[in-house]
Predict the 3D structure of the following.
Amino acid sequence: MSDTPVIGVLALQGDVREHLVALATADAVARPVRRPEELAEVDGLVLPGGESTTISKLAVLFGVMEPLRARVREGLPVYGTCAGMILLADKILDPRSGQETVGGIDMIVRRNAFGRQNESFEAAVDIKGVEGDPVEGVFIRAPWVESVGATAEVLAEHEGHIVAVRQGNALATSFHPELTGDHRVHRLFADMVRANRAAESL
């Protein structure tokens, strides 16, 4: 079995191309995923930023929401950035009408917690599991995590708010590491995918 994992990016809306580039630099085969048959072919999946309500409605429309939930429950490694973090939350504070989540991380997320588009900012973030200097986080209408359950691990905080979480094979960040050229978070995720493939092959 090749050590190169196939990692998809949910390509319904958002900054898909940037994630594909970042994953490729992390020694993964990266491909867009829109349909259930494409989802079935990947070893891991990135849920990109964008608009979480739109992404969830399109996922239902394309018939990929239920298969995705099932695979996450079965242990598919998954990484959500910004809107993707919201999609991985088991609960959202003040969700929009019709908004659904994939779930997978025992956390409560607040949408647009860091402010609107014109209040976007960058900040250095120390992330547990990412060696070296802090990661430059790009926060764009970013959520934060209000609270986590006992099975979720907080990996990073910014100004007292939780901005990176991991639970098993699920990883989520409030910010967009794919926009900076620093792809260490994607490498962390690719390593998670590799470890999961190795465990499944035993």
Q: What stands out?
A: The first strand starts at residue 6 and ends at 10. Helices lie at 16-25, 36-39, 52-61, 65-73, 83-88, 184-201. The chain has six helices and twelve strands. The CA atoms of residues 75 and 169 lie 6 Å apart.
